[in-house]
Amino acid sequence: MPRRLTGFTPSGDLHLGNYIGAIAPIISQQATTDTVVFISDLHALTLDHDPAKVRRRTLEFATMLLAAGADPQACLFLVQSHVPEHTELHYLLECTTGYGEAQRMIQFKEKAARQQQVRMSLLTYPILMAADILLYDTDEVPVGEDQRQHVELARDVAQRFNTRYGPTFTVPRAVNPPIAARIMDLASPGDKMSKSASSAAGTLCLLDEPQVLRRKVMRAVTDTGSQVTYDPAHKPGVSNLLTILAACTGEEPSRLAGRFDRYGELKEAVADAVVTTLAPVRERYLELACDPRHVRTALRTGADHAHELAGRKMRQVKAAIGLLPG
Ligand code: ADP
Ligand code: TRP
Known about the structure:
Blueprint: E1 3-8, H1 16-28, E2 34-39, H2 51-67, E3 75-79, H3 85-94, H4 99-103, H5 106-113, H6 120-135, E4 140-142, H7 148-165, E5 173-175, H8 210-218, H9 236-249, H10 253-257, H11 263-289, H12 292-321
Parallel strand pairs: 1-2, 2-3, 4-5
C-alpha cells in the first residue's frame, strides 16, 4: 500500500483552499492508503510568531482535522514537535543539501522579501519538510502547486542520499488533488487564498459561520462582462467561483459554466455548495472543541506510534551516513 503524507502549519486560520487542496484529498483515502497527517508546528516558527497563538492553533488544527474526518485508528496523526526524530533527521539532511538549492526555493524568496530579519529556519524550512516526508518512507505527498517545489527538493535529497550512502529512503512524489489545486482569494482573484497573505473578505475560513461564508461569496470580485465562462486567464474571478463549485460538487468547471446565465446565480450556487460542504465540519469542530482531552489523547497515541517507526528509520539513516551507534 503506498504511504501518503501531508502537514499543516498552524500559522493562520484554515480556509477552503486548505480543505479542498489538502485536507479532503488525504482524509478521503485514509481507509485505503497508508496515511500520515500531522501539524507542522515547527514550521510556524520560521516567521515572526506569537507563542500562545501557535500553541492554541496547534490544538485548533488537530481538532479541525478530526472534525474533517481524520481517524486516528486509520491514519498516523501527530504533532511534528512531539516526535523529535523530525529535527534529528533535519540536520542530517542539511548535510545532504546544497546552500544554493535551499536559496533557490521560490517560497523562500517571496517570504524573505517580506521580512526585515530573515530567520535561518526560513531558509532551511524545506529541508525540515524533506525530513518530515523521508522519515516515514512516504511515496506520495498531496499538495497544492505552491508546495510542489519543496517536494521536488525532498526527491532530490532522497536520491542524492541513496546514491552517496546506499539505498535508505523511498523517493517521494507530489500528487495534485484532481480539481482546484489552487483556490484564489475571492476579493483579489489574482492571489492565492492563503492563511498568511490574503484578505479577510476574500478568505473562506473553515470556522466562519454559514452566513459569513455566504456574505463573502456574494461579495466576491467578478470580471467585466456578464457571461459565465470558465477562462482563468481572462475571467479569473468567475473561473475561481466555478472552480470552487466544481470542487464542492465533483463536477467539471467548464460544464458547470453552461448552467448559469448571470454572475448572481453562480454566486448563489457557490454559496450553497460551500455552506453544504463546510457547515458539518464546523459543527463537528465545535463539539470536539468541548473535549480537548480527547484530542490530546489521540495526539499522544499518534506520537508514540510515530516515534517507534521514526526511531527505526533513524537508526538506518545514522548507520548509512557514518555515525557510530551509541
Ligand atoms: P497557506 O498558503 O494558506 O499558508 P499552507 O501553505 O500551510 O497554506 O498549505 C497547507 C496545504 O493546503 C498545502 O498542501 C497547500 O498546498 C494547500 N493549499 C493552501 N492554499 C491553497 C489554495 N489556495 N488552494 C489549494 N490548496 C491550497
Ligand atoms: N510546508 C507545508 C505548508 O506550509 C506543510 C508541511 C510541512 C508539509 N511538512 C510537510 C506538507 C510535509 C507536505 C509534506 O503548507
